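Exercise 7. Predict the joint structure of the components listed below.
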Amino acid sequence: MGAFILRRLLYAIPVIVGVVTLVFFLVHFIPGDPIDIMLGDAAEAADKEVLRRALGLHLPLLDQYLLFWKNIFNGTWGTSIAFARPVLGLILDRFGATLLLSFVSLLIGIALSFPLGVNAARKAGTKTDTFSVGFALLGMSVPIYVVAPIAILIFSVKLRVFPVAGYGTWAHLVMPTACLGFGLSGILTRMVRTAMLECLGEDYVRTARSKGLAERDVLFKHALRNAMIPVLTIMGNMLGGLLAGAVITETLFDWPGIGKLFFAAFQSRDYPLVQGVVLWIAISYVLINLFVDIMYSFFDPRVRFES
Amino acid sequence: MSKKSRGQNSLWIGGGVVAAILLAALLTPILPFSNPEAQRLSLQYASPSWEHPFGLGENGVDLLSQVFWGARLSLGVGLGSVFISAAIGLLLGSWAGYKRGWYDDVLMRIVDLLYAFPGILLVVALAAVLGPSVRNMMIVMVATSWAGYARLIRGVTLSLREREYVQAARAQGASTWRVLVHHLWPNLLAPLVVQMTFGLGGAIMVESSLSFLGLGAPPGTPSWGQLLNQGREVLTTSSHVVIVPGLALAFTILGLNLMGDGLRDRLDPKTRA
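Solution:
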């Protein structure tokens, strides 16, 4: 397995370098000068030049590109223009909030979707099934910027149970994670139901039933375990997307995560910060996909890493 | 309810909702709505009334008129970007799947690169680069969604190219272009149409997300995303400003997803999720 992980990490390097290089040149083509944005149009040309030199923005593009990689290896990831702080430190500060939001939302999504999806497949064609399919459709169709204001209106404004927005206490966590988790549960319910439906029709499930196993064991030890492969893939994609920052959720609930940081960095043309966040996201994407691949073998021992 | 009849119901209900919204969007210019941009400052955020059944929004704009004009924007941008993306995906994907070789390798590496990064961030980044306008929004949506179509079409083409009718055409000396247009494309249409239906729902979500973040339609253009963003500020006092465009958006995407499910059951039983 060690060799497999090493090979996967080596394969990931060109993809990460490709994404980061693409974004480096992309951000430099954004109309608008970060110096103008920071100092304002009225600033003296000499002051602008001093700042430009201090930030290394006077260098040719290729030199700036090499400097960017040099900063990666010295552990600062460069200095943010807008925050005047090392990029890696800024990212690490925000990552905790994003990690919390991601994991709790995904857990809520799983807690809602697994019972619904498994039950729907077990009782295919009944009202339970129709309810689950309807729930899944609703979760997939109503975007968070529609769900969240309605939830805020009910739970924060009318009932006053949870704060409208912000970060810091457990109460602040409930609304953003519940809204995000609802959306995730839509897609997950659908995936669990479809995968379970397929597995329940397989020979090994018939064998398990005919040898008199309890229905619970048939469902969870035989069918669900096999159904996990496609569900895991989707969950990996979701987690990757969530860790990259839920821009809209973080904006809606004023949550200080990676998504908001990325958005702010782009708006202020903070090149080093944009590049740093992109690199961070690309790395976390690769690691999550690797983790998902390792999990495959846990659920399905037939998956061999050498193949 | 059997799976088949549920598929039929999905198709009819979803198709009905989508047709109604399309018709409304098409007829908006000739329907007797007030000018969507007309301002009634003294009536800003007024609740629904007989005169303004959906109430008024920021600067006193009529929400009924805004929601209908917003439908035109959402569907226009959505349909435009979906058709262009699907056309690019069909062309590149079927060529790569049929010809294979270095061209296929290069295309798939580009697709992998686009998939190595979360979609919404790429959309936000590109939109920030290009600036808010309807045309730029379409460019962003095409740039980030063609790869999905290309990947799907390439995959289906890979299996179709081994079929006897394709091999027969090739044996008769048909050119690549002829095999693609006459033999492969007609058989690629079913999965493509299903993907486009779901894609339209996705495109409308992207359009409203961008407008919500202020990166989509320029300020003042009637757009559901912009209305939702404005409504957020006055949620506690005038909730109709959020609820009206929110419901319009939710119904449209719900209708498209239902229709996509029904179409998939009917046209493309093999790729059922």
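Discussion. Chain A touches chain B through 50 residues (CB under 8 Å).
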